[in-house]
Amino acid sequence: MALNITGDPEADALLDQSPFALLVGMLLDQQVAMETAFAGPAKLRDRLGSLDPAGVAAIDPDRLAEVMKQSPAVHRFPGSMAGRVQALAAAIVTDWDGDTSAIWTRGEPDGAEVLKRLKALPGFGEQKAKIFLALLGKQRGLAAPGWREAAGDYGAEGYRSVADIVDADSLAKVREHKRAVKAAAKG
Question: Does domain 9-186 have CATH number 1.10.340.30?
């Protein structure tokens, strides 16, 4: 199944083709709209000429920050997010030999192990790791035993996160769920 997160077929195609792009989109998914976050990797690729972990890890940090700041900016906080993207790329190069998908494929890990590996990445806390695990399971064909349990509520059927977005209707349902959660938290 092709991803349909950004509303931009070219940006979604990159997410489909590049596990690193998908991971970067998830990293960027904070304090901006989901579509903006997941369109970020395509902007980076277009501006840098390619988007691979080794290239991003090796680029001059000031240059990456400038690329992120170009209009339209890749993120609302381009400077700090440039550092996070570069740290993520460096971790992929150092810990996974530049192969992003090895995080969820090397050694046939179960869901709990994939979650542990994701949480070890720079910029990935518990919630972000669970959402990405659910995205892998629901839309990328991850068959790791126990992935739904490891992803917690995000692994359940419904419209909770980016893992559940397949079209404009599901995007609207995810947004409504997020609004309801925020309203309930306020009180």
Answer: yes
Helix axes 19-28, 34-48, angle to 10 degrees: 130
- Global pTM? 0.95
CA distance 155 to 163: 8
Alpha carbon 123 to its chain centroid, in Å, reads 10
Is the torsion defined by CA of 30, 28, 128, 120 positive or negative? Answer: negative
Which pair of tokens denotes residue 167? 């079209």
| Rounded-to-integer distance, Cα 105 and Cα 89, Å | 18
Q: Where do the structural domains in the chain lie, given as residue ranges?
A: 9-186
SS3 of 144, please?
A: coil
pLDDT in tens, the chain (187 residues): 789 999 999 999 999 999 999 999 999 999 999 999 999 999 999 999 999 999 999 999 999 999 999 999 999 999 999 999 999 999 999 999 999 999 999 999 999 999 999 999 999 999 999 999 999 999 999 999 999 999 999 999 999 999 999 988 999 999 999 889 889 998 8
Query: DSSP string covering 29-82, please?
Result: -SSS-HHHHHHHHHHHHHHHS---HHHHHHS-HHHHHHHHHSSSPSSSSHHHHH
Choose among 39, 74, 38, 78: nearest CA to 61: 78
